[in-house]
Amino acid sequence: MSEVVAAEIQTTHIIDLARSGHRLDGRGIDEWRPVKVEPGYIKSADGSALVHIGHTTVLCGVKLEIGKPFPDTPNAGVLTTNAELIALSSPTFEPGPPQPEAIELSRVVDRSIRAAETIDLTKLCVTPAEKCWTCFVDIHCLDHAGNLIDAAQLAALGALTHATMPAKRFGVGEHDFPLEVNHFPVECTFVRLGDKIVADPTFEEEAAGQGRLTVATDEARNVVAMQKGKIGAFSPDEVVETVERAFRHGDRLRSLARGT
Amino acid sequence: MGNGQGPRHRGRDRGARSPQSEPKVLVLPGDEIPDRGLQPGFGTYRVGRRLFVSIMGYATWRDPFVRVVPFAGRYIPKPNDVIVGVVQDVQKTFYLLDIDASRWAPLHTSGTPWEPGPGELDQYLRIGDAVLVAVENLDPTGKIGVTMKGEGLGKLSGGTLATISPAKIPRVIGKAGSMIHTITRLTGTRVAVGQNGRIWVEGTPDGIHRVRECLRIIEEEGQWPGLTERIEGFLQMTGPTDDTGPRPPGPEPVDRTQPERFDEGAPPPDDDPRAPSASPHIPPDETNEGEGPWEA
User: Fold this and answer.
1) Between A76 and B246, where is the model more confident?
2) Which CATH number does B160-290 carry?
3) Which residues in chain B are contacts of A24 at CB distance < 8 A?
């Protein structure tokens, strides 16, 4: 049971509601579910964060290890993002090799972290071409109630912001020190429901959605990454409006992830 | 445990009485319970002569079965359950329905009122259509046969679907349908309750929203006493919908033909899930046939 088709009477109801400015859970078109970020959730990880967006729950762990740089980037460390959509979190997920949804999730999160230059990879280099830090960002979806991308990105940012470089453990320094985070990208996902574009879609709204757009913004008001998903189109004006809305929500999400 | 002394009582008021049966006992997976000369039913298993529990819920002893009424969990089909399915695939001679169970259920054309030729099935139902069907048979391999033949069964047009944990469906219906009557009366909606936790609702957007809110309250607070009062209070506070017409002054008349409600902290008697709903889609006769655990 990988992908279940939602009932048509349900999707039309969601779209009809959106047309009159309402949503199933009573939120407004541009309103988010309650967001909660718990940094340092896993003690054994070098950095971690648990994020709740409504019932959606995502856990991210960051592991920092000493490894070998890639031959084509001898002066840079390595950043690896991986997402696990465990079968426990949704009936639509199955055990086994990563499904396209998991690959998309990890790549979209990775893209925003990389494109925003969240961490300066050259500073992760210890000895050029020989020794560098490898940063693993592992995202686990614990409960899928919609808008996984934003929750995963928020968890990744929260984990990175509170990560510690275990220099002592790997014998490359006297003391552990915090991972330097330079930029703070957050993603905002929108879904088209009829003529309305709603923020923070739920599982049902994603199923009913006629096009999905994710906008990653950083603290300097740059759009650092975007991702379009599902079948459906956005006009240029709608894209501009969506980006503006992403900026508006971005600052609040950023301060939640940074814990400020 | 394992000393055969029977289940422990956990917490206060866990042994609340319902009028016609003995105390319900909260059990956890692995607990040993006495069989009292009855056969192992749903949620129990035997090891030698001893009887153990496999799910969390209330243990009940009602001839001829010892069974556990679960607190939560996915829908497990039982024959004659009326459920809401969503067409996922249309084959040459049958439809495949998602019924929120462990697998999809085939609906053969023989179980529909139509007689389409091979390949003509999509003239009647398409992918994404919602249907009200009844579980007809369960074979030992786990295949779930459903039928659309029966009073009130058929395609669901208009309205929308709401969902709730299947374990909470008895709460949604209430004793002899009291809860669902209250909800439909005060929201001016029409409702068909599927035992698989899907509920079809038709009415004004506001009415549907209030039904949804009621379901949320039942889902979150269904295990506490006084549920019907809270639902009534909530619905009267949010006011009648436009199409319910003028209401009589004063408090809503309460149906006193039923004996006083038993403590709602305890699960309702086993036959309660099949109490008649307010829906014209589930006539009582249709829903009362499913008595007994599905292993029977």
Assistant:
1) A76
2) 3.30.1370.10
3) 212
Q: How far apart are CA B147 and CA B224, in angstroms?
A: 36
Q: What is the CATH number of the domain that holds A124?
A: 3.30.230.70
Q: What's the domain range around A172?
A: 8-258
Window from A12-21, A197-206, B285-294 with minimum mean pLDDT: B285-294
Residue A2 domain flag: no
The CATH label, of 3.40.190.10, 2.40.50.140, 3.40.50.261, 3.30.70.120, for the domain at B82-156 is: 2.40.50.140
Residue in chain B lying closest to A2 (CA): B103
Cα–Cα dist A229/B147, whole Å: 37
> Is the CB of residue B95 less than 8 Å away from at least one CB of chain A?
no
Q: ipTM of this model?
A: 0.79
Kindly determine whether residue A5 and residue B86, on different chains, have CB atoms separated by under 8 Å.
Answer: yes
- Measured between beta carbons, which residues in chain A are less than 8 angstroms from residue B98? 1, 4-5
Query: Which three-class secondary structure state does DSSP give residue A63?
Result: strand
**CATH numeric code, B1-71:** 2.40.50.100
Q: Identify from A8, A24, A90 which residue to disrupt to test chain B contact, counting B C-beta atoms within 10 A and taking the largest count.
A: A8
Identify whether A3 is part of a domain.
Answer: no
The pair of three-digit structure tokens given for residue B5, joined into one six-digit string: 């002394």
A–B: how many Cβ contacts below 8 A? 46
